[in-house]
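Forum > Structural Biology > Help requests

Title: Can anyone predict the 3D structure of MaoC family dehydratase N-terminal domain-containing protein?

Hi all, first post here. I have the sequence for MaoC family dehydratase N-terminal domain-containing protein but no way to get a structure on my laptop. I'd be grateful if someone could post the structure tokens.
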Amino acid sequence: MTIDRSIIGSRTPEHSVDVERGRLRFFARATGQPDPVYADPTAARAAGHPDIPVPPTFLFCLDLDNPDRGRFLADLGVDIRTVLHGGQAFEYRAQAYAGDRLTFSTEVTDVYSKKGGALEFIVRTTRVTRGGEPIATLTGTTVVRDPKAAK
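Reply #1:
Sure, ran it for you. Structure tokens for MaoC family dehydratase N-terminal domain-containing protein below:
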């Protein structure tokens, strides 16, 4: 399957997520984070934070709350069984905290192929804001494998 480069610049609908303390605590436990700042509001305040800080990579989890997250690939006609995670990167501008309402705005920023078209790469950039203030930029690469390509 060839991904049409004309999708570069296309955007998916924005979505907003409220950062919940319970999810931050769960993430801290799941990732083995021993620092109480990431689970206890009192410890967070004692460390100078207004509430529990959002740890690195958790923004990716919040982006998965997009109610239409599977729609993008479906609209392209991509069979989900051919999709691979190609990578992700994070660039932080400000700290987010429990209680924040974050908005995620995603745009396709590149499409390219490798191995004679057997692998198509879709790069999407997501800007995360809080009340218009930039919080982070997430860059994710999705790989679409062409099942008809020679192995």
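The mean pLDDT is 93. The CA atoms of residues 59 and 110 lie 21 Å apart.
Shout if anything looks off.
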